[in-house]
Task: inverse folding
């Protein structure tokens, strides 16, 4: 019997599954009555499978069948003729279990006798000198101390392992550290398995990957700037006009909008009435955020070329500069934030300028403006 690899995430998964499964089962059938302090104690002799759940569970009697338990603390101090399946923060076995044990907890202590095998997932496993297993013990833990007897094999994925008891079979463990094993404690062989390691890429592979990513971004995002420069040159110029005289105003508007709009959309989303509006708002806001790249590229092109060149050329030149800056570690974070804040702010300012009810906008585009009689104001 050989332990290949036991991933550490199995610990958390097993604990969660155990708690849910045992809790559901306990909802259907429970034994004993919980005290006001949240403790549940089962004494006497019972027949058939028994289910226990509570903050503190203590099985002190004799159970002629299997035991399923879940809680903050689970103690098996009685005699169990079947299996024990338990999930808790702390599990302690001081009694006798004639079957197998399947345990998931933060701390597991076995001071009693388990006739058959054990499967244990915990942060800390302790088999005391009075504890014993008749067959195999399989599991995963951060630390494991075996001071009692194990009848056959011990198979663990562990960080630190100490064996001072007796193991009647082989010991196979996956660990970065050598186990502390007393001489003569293991009857069979001892095998340490190195955990699998992800090879670190060579510097040339890192540079090659960065270059390929940069090349892909240049091609893909250049297509976006190309289409924007061909289809929306006038709109690009109007939006970036807000960044020429007063870029800090656009930065402030974009920053405030980035902080408040997502919160407002989330608030609408959790309401029944506002959910459709929130979904539409999320779609629009996502488009505006993604479009900030095209406006940032065109603005950079205007700054670099100083008014020379066609809108298409400005978009491509600015886009190339922006793409390279977005691929420089650490700097790309600042460039991304500046691009989004400036782009969103400029778009919102342009939307505000072109609002339908603005008479200045209608005069700018040559539309007739209806004259209204003067209105008395206070």
Result:
């Amino acid at each position: 019997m050989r332990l290949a690899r036991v991933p550490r995430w199995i610990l958390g998964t097993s604990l969660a599954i155990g708690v849910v499964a045992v809790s559901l089962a306990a909802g259907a059938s429970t034994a004993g009555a919980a005290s006001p302090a949240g403790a549940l104690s089962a004494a006497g002799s019972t027949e058939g499978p028994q289910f226990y759940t509570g903050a503190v569970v203590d099985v002190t009697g004799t159970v002629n069948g299997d035991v399923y338990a879940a809680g903050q603390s689970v103690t098996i101090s009685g005699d169990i003729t079947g299996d024990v399946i338990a999930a808790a923060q702390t599990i302690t076995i001081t009694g006798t279990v004639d079957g197998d044990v399947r345990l998931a907890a933060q701390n597991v202590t076995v001071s009693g006798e388990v006739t058959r095998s054990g499967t244990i997932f915990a942060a800390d496993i302790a088999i005391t000198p009075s504890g014993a297993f008749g067959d195999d013990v399989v599991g995963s833990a951060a630390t494991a101390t075996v001071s009692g007897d194990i009848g056959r094999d011990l198979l663990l994925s562990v960080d630190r392992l100490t064996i001072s008891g007796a193991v009647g079979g082989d010991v196979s463990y996956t660990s970065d550290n050598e186990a502390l094993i007393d001489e003569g404690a293991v009857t069979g062989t001892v095998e340490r398995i190195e955990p699998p390691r992800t090879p670190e890429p060579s510097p040339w592979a890192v540079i090659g990957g960065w270059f390929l990513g940069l090349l892909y971004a240049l091609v893909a995002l250049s297509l976006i700037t190309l289409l924007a420069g061909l289809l929306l040159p006038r709109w690009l110029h109007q939006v970036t006009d807000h960044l020429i005289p007063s870029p800090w105003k656009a930065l402030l508007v974009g920053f405030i909008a980035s902080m408040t709009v997502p919160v407002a959309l989330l608030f609408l989303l959790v309401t029944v009435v506002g959910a459709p509006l929130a979904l539409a708002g999320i779609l629009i806001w996502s488009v505006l955020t993604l479009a900030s790249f095209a406006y940032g590229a065109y603005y950079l092109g205007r700054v670099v070329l100083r008014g020379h060149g066609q809108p298409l050329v400005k978009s491509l030149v600015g886009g190339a500069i922006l793409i390279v800056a977005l691929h420089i570690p650490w700097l790309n974070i600042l460039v991304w934030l500046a691009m989004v804040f400036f782009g969103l702010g400029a778009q919102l300012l342009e939307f505000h300028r072109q609002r339908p009810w603005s008479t200045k906008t209608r005069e700018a585009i040559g539309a007739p403006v209806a004259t209204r009689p003067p209105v008395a104001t206070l």
In short: Helices lie at 9-28, 203-231, 233-240, 247-269, 275-305, 311-326, 331-353, 359-364. The two ends are 93 Å apart (CA to CA).
